[in-house]
Write a structure and sequence with these properties.
7-stranded mixed β-sheet, Aspartate Aminotransferase, domain 1, alpha/beta, 2 domains, about 15% strand, about 350 residues
């Protein structure tokens, strides 16, 4: 394979590719900053920001009044944690992404740890049992697990927690943009995602959704000049508490413009079509793999992340053959998105077979 051959990129779970039209949207905005910076920024702030917020809300199936534009997942969760009383008993998955559990640890919450049984399956029956026996107030968990590709049944989880009077905080960073999501149907209390992975929108932006009921019960404890926490009138400030208080100072205009264009591209293709396409390619890979897979080859509870063991220099061999994946903790993580093709999967399968034969 020549050095000019495009790589087979199977690493969206680490960072998503950005298409040129998406990139150009941000560049065009910043080109206006060369001579008309104040006018361009004021137009974005006064007009474009509300349009982007509405487009994000439509994309995840809610109203714009329930959406805050944030820098990333970690910022959003830390801000939400500050709104909690601190007395909540929290259920956390032990192998979840650290950003999910660290804010609760450093703020010394009462934590109950959830374990899987086989390195893959997170059992809803076990969650239900722990909620009941431990009197859990809040479940915080990723929709898709970064180390295994396990995808929890979010509809069932949120329904279960509502029935038991338990709050839910969902990290959708490893799922938003790869599967269709409607928070109106799922009804989580809080839903947060960074956009640099499956949304294919680069770093520096995140989405925070909060149900109206949760927002009313847990008013924000952070704010800033651009957060609309207070309105000046009659020579005094009047408090105007809303989810926009979670928005920090000046927003990332470049990043959210890119996200808006990425949403347009995904909406044009259709999230149902993207999800089906990713699923078909993942099934193709699982049918042909000649090495053990974390969680087995069954498609139930599986995202388009597939994890296999790194043995005898397989990862280095894939890199040599221009296949980009992630190696972590003795495993190779393969992540498939809508830019991939059957030829990509066949090339990966062939390289794995060649390595084993060698």
């Amino acid at each position: 394979m020549t050095e000019h051959t495009p790589p087979v990129y199977l690493n969206t779970a680490a960072c998503g590719l950005i298409t040129n039209p998406v990139l150009q949207t941000g560049i065009h905005l910043y080109q206006d900053f060369e001579n008309l910076a104040s006018a361009a920024s004021e137009h974005w702030r006064d007009v474009k920001a509300s349009e982007i917020r509405s487009n994000i809300a439509r994309f995840i199936g809610t109203g714009a009044e329930n959406i805050a534009l944030i820098p990333n997942f970690s910022y959003g969760l830390n801000a939400v944690v500050q709104a909690l009383s601190g007395q909540e008993k929290v259920l956390l998955y032990r192998k979840d992404f650290p950003s999910v559990y660290i804010p609760f640890m450093v703020n010394q919450f009462n934590i109950v740890w959830l374990d899987d049984d086989d390195g893959f399956l997170i059992d809803l029956n076990k969650i239900e049992s722990l909620i009941k026996t431990e009197k859990i107030d809040l479940v915080a968990i990723s929709h898709v697990q970064w180390q295994s590709g396990f995808k929890i049944d979010l509809q069932a989880l949120c329904s279960l927690c509502r029935d038991l009077g338990t709050r839910t905080i969902i990290d959708a960073t490893q799922s938003l943009g790869s599967v269709k999501i409607s928070v109106a149907e799922l009804q989580p209390d809080v839903f947060i995602a960074s956009n640099y992975k499956w949304m294919n929108a680069g770093f520096g932006t995140g989405i925070l959704y909060m149900s109206p009921e949760f927002a009313a019960a847990y008013p924000p404890r952070i704010s800033g000049a651009h957060s609309n926490a207070f309105q000046f009138a009659d020579l005094s400030f009047r408090q105007n508490t809303s989810i926009t208080n979670y928005e920090p100072g000046s927003l990332n205009m470049f990043g959210f413009s890119i996200l808006d264009k990425a949403i347009e591209e995904k909406s044009r293709r259709g999230m149902e079509a993207i999800e089906a396409y990713n699923r078909n390619l993942t099934a193709l890979l699982l049918r042909q793999l000649s090495v053990p897979v974390t969680g087995g080859a069954d498609m139930q509870h599986r995202s388009s992340i597939v994890v296999i063991r790194e043995e005898n220099g397989l990862h280095a061999f894939l890199v040599k053959n221009n296949i980009i994946t992630t190696m972590r903790n003795g495993n190779i993580r393969i992540s498939i998105h809508f830019h991939n093709t059957e030829a990509d999967i066949e090339h990966l399968i062939q390289c794995i077979a060649d390595h084993r034969n060698a």
